[in-house]
Write a structure and sequence with these properties.
- This protein is an alpha/beta fold.
- It has 2 domains: about 60 residues, no CATH class; about 90 residues, 3-Layer(aba) Sandwich (Rossmann fold).
- It is about 35% helix and about 20% strand.
- The chain has a 3-stranded parallel sheet with strand order 3-4-5. A two-stranded parallel sheet has the order 1-2.
- β4, α4 and β5 form a beta-alpha-beta unit.
- The chain is globular, with a radius of gyration of 16 Å.
- The two termini are about 10 Å apart.
C-alpha cells in the first residue's frame, strides 16, 4: 500500500485574491479583510504533520491550496502513473477537505474509500451531512477502520 499525505496551506495575505480572502474571512468569522491572518503558512504548526504520524521516506507528501486533494496537486498524475484506481481517505476535516476529495476522486474515475471513523471534523453536524450526502449519492465506499484493516489482512 502506498501512503500519500496532503497538507493544506494558505496563501500569504499579499497573494490572496478575492476568493481566498472571502474564504479566509468566512473561516475567521470577520467581515474585515484587514483582520485576516493566514492560518496555514508553510513552516507553521498548522501545516506540519504531527510528530506521532511522521511520514516514512517512501511516502508521498504534497501541499494543497484547494479543498480537494486532487485540485492543483500531482496526486492524480502519481496515482495514474502507478496504475492505482482507488484511494482510501482519512484525515482531519470531513466537511472541509475530505468530502470534496471523495467527490473529486469519483469524478476522475478513482474509487474513494472513506474510512469514516478515521476522519475528524470541525463541525459534527456538517460532517454528518457530508457523510450522509456521500452515502446517498454513492460517490464513495464508506467503511470503518476495523473493516478496512480486516480487508487488508
Amino acid at each position: 500500500m502506498r501512503i500519500a499525505w496532503s497538507r493544506h496551506q494558505s496563501l500569504p495575505k499579499r497573494w490572496m485574491g478575492q476568493f481566498a480572502m472571502r474564504q479566509a474571512m468566512t473561516w475567521q468569522r470577520t467581515d474585515q479583510p484587514e483582520a485576516v491572518e493566514p492560518w496555514f503558512l508553510r513552516g507553521t504548526p498548522g501545516v506540519e504533520i504531527v510528530p506521532d504520524l511522521v511520514p516514512r521516506p517512501e511516502d508521498f507528501v504534497f501541499d494543497k491550496l484547494a479543498m480537494s486533494a486532487f485540485e492543483g496537486t500531482p496526486l492524480q498524475m502519481a496515482m495514474r502513473d502507478a496504475g492505482l484506481g482507488a484511494i482510501a481517505i482519512c484525515g482531519i476535516a470531513m466537511e472541509i477537505g475530505i468530502e470534496p476529495t471523495c467527490r473529486h476522486a469519483a469524478d476522475l474515475g478513482i474509487v474513494p474509500i472513506l474510512i469514516e471513523d478515521a476522519c475528524g471534523h470541525g463541525n459534527a453536524e456538517a460532517a454528518q451531512r457530508s457523510v450522509d450526502a456521500l452515502r446517498f449519492s454513492g460517490d464513495a465506499i464508506i467503511t470503518d477502520v476495523a473493516t478496512f484493516a480486516s480487508a487488508l489482512g
